[in-house]
């Protein structure tokens, strides 16, 4: 019968305990993003904001009644990937039982959504990014 030397066994156990802590969580570097969206000086409630970095999944938010938003990367992770993002702002449409928009009216001018040229830089830490849109 062969035996595994005790010191090798201890080294193996120690290695298995240490390795999971190496390399970080593997996720992208993030920054939190909050702000306010206004249109012609008035808060813009219930609009969708999408930050698309092009290199990772986008982050999004829906504005509250005062036009405030806070980006979410996933259900559990707030913020956006660090870097330059193309930004899209559009009306949030209620859906019927079949998933079709109830109203197709767009409160936000096309230059901020389908034709958007908005670009914002997200840095690590907290970012306050406000959008003062004009009709």
From TrEMBL:
Signal peptide: 1-23
Domain of life of the organism encoding this protein: Bacteria
Region feature (Disordered): 92-135
Keyword field contains Cell wall biogenesis/degradation: no
Keyword Aminoacyl-tRNA synthetase attributed: no
Polar residues biased stretches: 113-127
UniProt keyword list: Signal
Record's protein name: Carboxypeptidase regulatory-like domain-containing protein
